[in-house]
């Protein structure tokens, strides 16, 4: 009798395929427990990265919460009450300045207080050669058109300051600083005194824990490094 495989060659092909299929499946079954039992290095790195991101998220959120304006400073109700006597009194105390700065960040208008502080530091310059680099940095950061932290100045004040920049003196930014000071005093300062975080300080209450929120990116001025070594809050 003739070999049936010669008469039906497709049977041989089918059997060969089945053997290959079962061989692959058997190999897969043996390897699968090994893969699941020991997570790979890439998986471990992904888990570590996720943990670090969560840690950074919560840390940044704590630092930016408006309810924690002066937690580190441990301000007493008596001190907080004095901040309400005048805007100048608020800015003259480090804790008050810090609290007001953080409040402005919640309103996305911190460029005003940062400009005011930059001008205060500028006026402390002791030598003439310090004035030009500081003046240029302040002008490019806060005053020129489309500056990253452009403050709201009227046309006359901006033009006068722009001209004075060419040969800066200690009073170069006085007019602009006074304009921004009045703006904060008349607009932001009253809202600060009515804000819940400030009222909580006055009443000696612990600030309520706000809902978790993703921190917003806030521009930090680094242009003054090397030319303004003693900015208090920056």
Automatic annotation (TrEMBL):
Residues 86-202 form the RGS domain. The keyword Cell membrane does not apply. One of its GO terms (biological process) is negative regulation of signal transduction. Keywords: Signal transduction inhibitor. It holds the Pfam family RGS. Transmembrane segments: none annotated. Gene3D superfamilies: 1.10.196.10, Regulator of G-protein Signalling 4, domain 2. The keyword Cell membrane does not apply. SMART domains: RGS. PANTHER family: REGULATOR OF G PROTEIN SIGNALING, REGULATOR OF G-PROTEIN SIGNALING 18. This is RGS18 protein. The gene is Rgs18.
